[in-house]
Design goal:
globular; 6 helices; 30% helix; 196 residues; alpha/beta; Rossmann fold; two-stranded antiparallel ribbon
Length: 196
């Protein structure tokens, strides 16, 4: 059964994945809201349902491989690929830390039709790096699918499937209203559970 955008939003909110406060995003920008995908991805049945929704939307694209960036993209690539009956690969940070590459014996052939998947798309950085890695390997990216698109229209050059689109403001640190208000900054993924 197809899952709609409202149901995806509810799923994230019910899991406690939609946070409010003052956050430093992986892009270095700041925001007053943050979507913590692992609050949802820790539940295999919820992850399966979300990936099923992606698989339903891309089934007619003749996908042969699903690629995702580390870390959350690994989980999604694996489950979407399982549901499509194709293989999954993932792209890791390169030595410079500014791009992504396929390691661990992953190779892509020129005739492979690759779906790139990711969890939360903020700026499109991880997705674009994965697209670049697929193209550098010689394969073709046919579409991108994400759980949540909060980018406000990131340019990808391929069709985008987003299960939930939401608008969340992001600020450069020197223009951040939360910084000016003195609200303590949190960097999600770096603070141990239970510590605030």
């Amino acid at each position: 059964m197809a899952i709609g955008e409202r149901e995806v939003e509810t799923l994230f909110r019910d899991a406690g994945a939609y946070l409010e406060g003052h956050f430093e995003l992986s892009s270095g920008k700041h925001s007053d809201r943050y979507v913590e995908k692992f609050a949802v991805l820790q539940w295999p049945r919820q992850t399966e349902r979300l990936c099923e929704a992606i698989a339903e939307r891309v089934r007619d694209l003749d996908v042969t491989t699903v690629a995702g960036p580390t870390t959350g993209g690994i989980i999604l690539a694996h489950e979407v690929a399982r549901q499509l009956g194709v293989r999954a690969v993932y792209a890791e940070r390169d030595e410079s830390g500014r791009g992504r590459v396929f390691r661990r014996g992953f190779q892509l052939a020129r005739d492979e039709r690759v779906l790139v998947v990711d969890d939360i798309m903020s700026t499109g950085g991880s997705v674009n790096e994965t697209i670049d890695a697929v193209r550098a390997a010689g394969a073709t990216v046919i579409a991108v699918a994400v759980l949540v698109d909060r980018s406000g229209g990131a340019e990808l050059g391929v069709p985008l499937v987003a299960l939930w689109r939401t608008s969340i403001a992001a600020y450069e640190p020197d223009a951040c209203p939360q910084c000016r208000a003195g609200i303590p900054l949190r960097k999600p993924g770096t603070t141990p559970a239970g510590v605030r």
